[in-house]
Design a protein that fits this description.
The protein is of the alpha+beta class and about 350 residues long. Helices cover about 45% and strands about 25% of the residues. The strands form three sheets. It has a five-stranded antiparallel β-sheet with strand order 2-1-5-4-3, with helices on both faces. Strands 7-9-10-12-11 form a five-stranded mixed β-sheet. Helix 7 runs antiparallel to helix 8 (about 165-200), helix 8 runs parallel beside helix 12 and helix 10 runs antiparallel to helix 12. The chain is elongated, with a radius of gyration of 30 Å. The structure holds adenosine-5'-diphosphate. Adenosine-5'-diphosphate binds near residues 289, 314, 320 and 324.
Length: about 350
């Protein structure tokens, strides 16, 4: 619809700040503001005030540049009034925090004369954040794939250059190629897992699970690996059984991921203790280790995809940097919470909650 026609009052006169203009602006989901051809602010909606953290009395009767002091928007306003053409730009406002908006300045034209302009700000902050996350993700995945692939390439080239004839090195090289291929396999498995969880394809299949028994089973599965580093795993629980409502397979995956880390990032001869108890109607599991610990700067970030404190060490231990991210998604899909308390050099305590049987 012609915007100028929308702003005519009941008598057919053009009004930039009449009741009709106000009704239209307040019904708009996006932030909107109208100025006349002298740049005087004529009407606006609450969304606009909110973005700039202003009140009506701050801006009433002022010119656009007096009220907002935004050179890009002022320039767009001048162009829209002078050329009678719509101006579009992406702008960033730091109010505080970085917010991205698609700004559209539309000239309000009546009988071939520009009477004013309508500015609409569409909040595209989330969209830009998601795009950035996707770009980072692609860059991270490519980087993670490239490392074992480069190693496989170098090893096969060495074999083809003659090492294939030598019995000793041949075996070692083939073993190293297998390990790199395994690493690639784990990475692809974790990526597919994460994608399935995030897109909701793996929503929990609810059943009743004894948390203590699940923890004991997970501990049993990890004992061989732990024994290689003389790490002991103990399960401590106050009750005989704590019945949770959870997806057993996903709960096992969470326990194994956390236990695997508690062993991997432990010291030789260290301890892992699993404690299970009820708290405020939730089942709470704590996995404590006596390992390397995590600094206060790193701790809030370790649940992010591919975030690793010590990349080289994680890779050497067969890590993909996705385990904790998978844990977080799985627990959140159960409605629970996951967290960590840690002290550098003294060990970490990861904890999570799952709903109890009602
Ligand atoms: P990874 O495959 O690298 O183990 P995770 O997502 O499981 O990936 O963990 C992310 C990072 O968090 C690890 O690289 C490590 O730096 C840190 N981390 C995880 N668990 C522990 C732990 N129990 N003790 C110390 N650091 C840990």
């Amino acid at each position: 619809m012609n915007l100028a026609r929308r702003f005519k009052n009941s008598k057919g006169n053009f009004s930039l700040n009449g009741p009709l203009a106000e009704v239209i602006l307040s019904a708009m989901a996006d932030a909107a503001l109208v100025v006349d051809r002298d740049h005087k602010i004529a009407a606006f909606n609450a969304g606009f005030l909110k973005i700039f953290r202003k009140s009506s009395s701050d801006i009433l009767g002022q010119t656009f540049e007096e009220a907002f002091r935004h050179p890009i928007l002022t320039n767009m306003l001048c162009l829209a009034l002078a050329q009678g053409r719509k101006q579009c730009r992406e702008i960033h406002l730091f109010v505080p925090g970085d917010f991205a908006f698609e700004a559209s300045m539309l000239p309000l034209i009546r009988q071939a004369k520009v009477e004013g302009a309508l500015l609409i700000l569409l909040d595209i902050t989330r969209l830009r954040q998601l795009e950035e996350m996707r770009r980072d993700f692609v860059a991270n995945v490519s980087h993670e794939l490239r490392t074992p692939l480069a190693s496989i390439k170098a090893l096969t080239e060495t074999l083809l250059d003659g090492a294939l004839e030598e019995r000793g090195p041949r075996g070692e090289f083939v073993q190293a190629i297998k390990e790199d291929a395994d690493r690639l396999g784990h990475l692809v498995d974790d990526l597919l897992d994460l994608e399935a969880i995030e897109s909701g394809k793996r929503s929990p299949r609810w059943e009743y699970v004894d948390l203590i028994q699940a923890a004991r089973q997970a501990a049993d599965k990890m004992r061989n690996l732990a024994a290689k580093r003389q790490v002991t795993i103990r399960v401590e629980a106050e009750n005989n059984g704590i019945c949770a409502r959870a997806d057993k397979e996903q709960l096992d995956q969470v326990l194994i991921n956390l236990l695997d880390n508690a062993v991997k990032y432990n010291l030789d001869g260290g301890r892992v203790t699993i404690r299970i108890h009820e708290q405020d109607g939730w089942g709470r599991v704590e996995i404590q280790d006596t390992g390397v610990g995590i600094s206060t700067e790193d701790a809030p970030r370790i649940f992010e995809r591919f975030y690793r404190v010590d990349k080289a060490r994680s890779r050497e231990l067969g890590g993909t940097g996705l385990g904790l991210s998978i844990v977080k998604h799985l627990i959140e899909a159960h409605g629970g919470q996951v967290g960590v308390m840690s002290e550098l050099g003294r060990g970490s305590m990861f904890h999570f909650t799952v709903p109890l049987k009602k």
